[in-house]
Amino acid sequence: MADGEGDPGVFTATVLPGDPRLLPTVTSAFLGTRVFRDILHAAGVYSGASGDTHRADVPSPLGLRMAAPGAHSPAESFTLNTWTGTFSHTIQSPGHTATHQLYAHHSLVHLMASSITIRRLDGSTHPITIQLRSLFVPQSQDLDLRPGPDFQGAHYIYGQTLVPEVEGGPRPTVHMLWTPIPQSLTLGGEERERCWEFLTAVAGSEEEAKRSYSAGLSLVAAGSLHRSHVRAWAALRRSCSVELDGPLALRQALQGCLYYLLSAIPPRDSPGVLFHGISPGGLSNGTRGEDYWGHVFWDQDTWMFPNILLLYPEAARAILQYRIRTLEGARRNAQEQGYEGAKFPWESAATGREVCPEEIYGAQEIHVTGDVLMAFEQYYCTTQDQKLFREDGGWELVEAVAQYWCSRMVWSEEEQLYHIRGVMPPDEYHSQVDNSAYTNAVARRSLNFATDMSRDLLLPVPEEWEDRARKIKVPFDEERRYHPEYDGYSPGEPVKQADVVLLGFPLMHPMSAEVRRNDLEMYEPVTDPAGPAMTWSMFAVGWLELKELQRAWNQLEKCFSNITEPFKVWVENSDGSGAVNFLTGMGGFLQVILFGFTGFRITRSSLLFDPTFPDDITKLKISSVSYLGNKLEVTITREEIRMEVTETSQDPPASPLEAVLESGQRFPLWEGQNVSFPTAPGWIQRSPS
């Protein structure tokens, strides 16, 4: 395995994978591309109507490939450095090296950059030439592009998407400036080393594209363009650092997941940049026919969000604001199906209208609406940010989801319970079923949260919310002591992916350890081994809860068949099919580490912990667990837990915290003070003093 000489965050190879989908991606919150590819994507820029809506292909000048003329089989290497957020290709020839670097600037999110450096290694004085191959053509199948006047040495094109998502809706405009790329570069005979920089700026307005390009040029002139990106990216990596002592393959997978997921979120100081959600394959993918067309699913809210929330709540808020901005589309979805409130689409793009190309999923896989609200609940419990709900549209979304669930239920006279009929559960091998355990449990959780939230905001609570939460059916087999997936489920029936096991985590549906075990035992052997990558992580979390460490490790190990070499790009299914650069699988994997190994559970009043590690892991350190305005550095070994509050917010002021063990021992958590205690279950809560 290529492992960057043991560095878990540097992935190096001498040969590229044969499948170009497995090349690494370089992405910011607004721009993304796959290395050596001739297209890039801009966030929120979709073309095509309803089910044909897909990320609009923007032609990319960044897909350069170097070649050394006359060199016979020069030594080549390709490196993804996750610590610097940079991909590089190096050609080593006798007497010189040529290095091509590519990155999406982390703080200047409208700017992508590449550089070519030729370095002479001997005393020769002859010119050295490197050829540049590019497939770039300033045209697109999705944009009506036309040329504009050059700007500060850059070429300029602009245009709108061809087809709006909804009839009469907006057609986003793209403006792009780029440094012209020559066919070759030459290091003069008197030169030892030279670096050429190439910038590409893409934005929704001419003004922003020019501002970003000019900012890039100023940094180039100061010799600090790459350094400014590395500084911003490294600050993010440090503040979201997760390290463990364990097998190299596990540490590499961890750092790869953090690189790809953190690439997708907005930088810290970007309040003006609208965030457009995270699709299963990320911003670099999603052209027509690829990676679900770049649509946003429950993958964002259920699988990726909890990790982002724990490490970086400001970015978690931006994800929620994407859902708030698409609320009107969700209201229209509910209305068209004959229901009240808001029904979030199974597949979402720019408007919140349903854009799934196959009607059955949009009509039946309705659990996504509860998944969206669970992300809001986790955020509120972790931050107590009432402003999001009082002033920024959060309450309107909570209320609309509660109204939807109430209108979607029907009363069963026979069972004296509310039913939700005709749905597809997360297990997509079954459709048109009644009372999906997961769907009904997430609906109950939605209604309970809406009730709690309305009380916190001092608003009247509709009686039907509490009544329906109390009386909704969640199927349970009293004889076998487990949760059937839906009414009429027969034990042994094949299941596509994690479904009922999600009741234990993340839903935390009330159940005994016996029932939790029975659910895991019932569904583990019948879950499709070729199913999507995030599934095994949830079985691993379940077994960790029950302290079945070998069984947890066996499930976690299954994830590795979805991680491709050499750049740790995930595939949705182990046979290589489905979405690629599958952030959903990475999100599930990270939850094993951040919630499974730690035992972290977000509740209304506290952050629970109950650490447990498989045998090969001896230590876990998380640099920045965010809770109630505090950032905690948490280090866990088998013997000891250490916690230190490293930072507290001033506006609003952070709540003082304490750690409480189940034994009753209490440990105040003051900023700058290191507290340690024996590894045991407990919780972090607001200090009563």
What do you see in this structure?
The chain is of the alpha+beta class and 689 residues long. It folds into three domains: 13-239, Distorted Sandwich (Beta-galactosidase, Chain A, domain 5), CATH 2.70.98; 312-528, Glycosyltransferase; 619-686, Jelly Rolls (Sandwich), CATH 2.60.120. Helices cover 29% and strands 24% of the residues. It has 16 helices and 32 strands. The chain has a nine-stranded antiparallel sheet with strand order 1-9-10-11-12-18-16-15-14, with helices on one face. A five-stranded antiparallel sheet has the order 19-26-27-28-31. Strand 2 (25-27) and strand 3 (31-34) form a beta hairpin. Helix 5 packs across helix 8, helix 8 packs across helix 11 and helix 14 (535-545) packs antiparallel against helix 15 (549-558). The longest helix has 20 residues, at 437-456. The radius of gyration is 26 Å and the shape is globular. The protein starts with 9 loop residues before the first strand and ends with a strand.
